[in-house]
Amino acid sequence: MDKIILGLPKGSLNNVNRGNTYQLFVDAGYDIKGYEPGNESYEISIVNDLEIKAFLTRPQSTPVELNRGMVDIAIVGEDWIREESVNSDNSIMKLGDLNYGETRLIVAIPNTDPYKSLTDFFRKNKSRKTPILCFTEYPNLTRQHFMENEGYKEVFGDSVPLVQVRGLIDGENDQVQIINSDGATEVYIAKGADLIVDNTQTGSSLKKAGLVELETIMHSSAGLYSGVNCHGYKLDKAKRIFDQLFGAITARKYFDVKFNVENDLAELASEFLVENKFCSDEPTINKGSKFSQINVLIEKNKFPEMLNGINRFNASAIVRSNVKQYIK
Ligand SMILES: Nc1ncnc2c1ncn2[C@@H]1O[C@H](COP(=O)(O)OP(=O)(O)OP(=O)(O)O)[C@@H](O)[C@H]1O
Ligand SMILES: O=P(O)(O)OC[C@H]1O[C@H](OP(=O)(O)OP(=O)(O)O)[C@H](O)[C@@H]1O
């Protein structure tokens, strides 16, 4: 049987301070080699799951690889999937969101500009002689967003903004030019651009460049996606991989807590835990000669409240551990 081919992201989605995909695989129980952040190889091995063959992919190119069947599944930000899908239907399917690598794609301008919105920007630039320049890594989403903007429609109607990707130029409205950037997009404002469209996470890059957000185009986070070749047993396998990864993500929100109460208080303590939803289905009770050990999986943010609550049952030997995997 052919192995399922998995694309793993290079860049921010495998950066210890941003979206540590490597750590996610480790936490999910995969013995993964060649994908350590900052030291990735092009071929990555998952030693304890030989049904998977993994390659490094650049998120920008991942949708193309999924659409052409070069990889069967991949982890990538939704922003790149949408950028690829603007002008055509594709066969990429989202297996599920992984809730990290969260960014927003935004339109930004210099913080000294007077504009209140993109509509305001287009209205106030109606009569200018020079073209409006916008740099971005996401020219398709930018063009779509501009064409849906009230101000753009008022000034330019249905005329399609010009898009330039290196030597390739498309579109008719050369008064609004959207130019492809390969990174460090914020800097284009200092070099003479009017607008940029870029993703932001903490906002520090925008601040450093003296820019402010005008509006949000979309929210993005990392997800597992399948491509044109992912059918039958590969799709089943893909779903199992997603569950295993998502189990590790879910587990990060939980503690595994054990404590002792005297046997005659065990039932009351258990009822208290169920009533307050301080457990998954129900607490597990291990009865000893004098004491019962009670075990619950509890959401981290509920732990302090639970600790207060179990005081009344004279809880002792309270042990709290992190959870590595929780498939609900
Ligand atoms: N600061 C960030 N924090 C978390 N995720 C981010 C951040 N910046 C970008 N991302 C997400 O990571 C994915 C890849 O981003 P991007 O295309 O900017 O490449 P990159 O991570 O900078 O790597 P490269 O060096 O290959 O360009 C996108 O889906 C994006 O939303
Ligand atoms: O809001 P922040 O926390 O500052 O993060 C956002 C920045 O991170 C990414 O850039 P990256 O540093 O990967 O460099 P790049 O622009 O060259 O892609 C992204 O393109 C933004 O510029």
From TrEMBL:
It holds the Pfam family HisG. Keywords: Amino-acid biosynthesis, ATP-binding, Cytoplasm, Glycosyltransferase, Histidine biosynthesis, Nucleotide-binding, Transferase. GO terms for biological process: L-histidine biosynthetic process. It is an enzyme of class 2 (transferase). Pathway: Amino-acid biosynthesis; L-histidine biosynthesis; L-histidine from 5-phospho-alpha-D-ribose 1-diphosphate: step 1/9. It comes from the Archaea. It catalyses: 1-(5-phospho-beta-D-ribosyl)-ATP + diphosphate = 5-phospho-alpha-D-ribose 1-diphosphate + ATP. Transmembrane segments: none annotated. GO terms for molecular function: ATP binding; ATP phosphoribosyltransferase activity. It is found in: Cytoplasm. Its EC number is 2.4.2.17. One of its GO terms (cellular component) is cytoplasm. Its main location: cytoplasm. Residues 58-243 form the ATP phosphoribosyltransferase catalytic domain. Catalyzes the condensation of ATP and 5-phosphoribose 1-diphosphate to form N'-(5'-phosphoribosyl)-ATP (PR-ATP). Has a crucial role in the pathway because the rate of histidine biosynthesis seems to be controlled primarily by regulation of HisG enzymatic activity. PANTHER family: ATP PHOSPHORIBOSYLTRANSFERASE, ATP PHOSPHORIBOSYLTRANSFERASE ATP-PRTASE. This is ATP phosphoribosyltransferase. It comes from Methanobrevibacter filiformis.
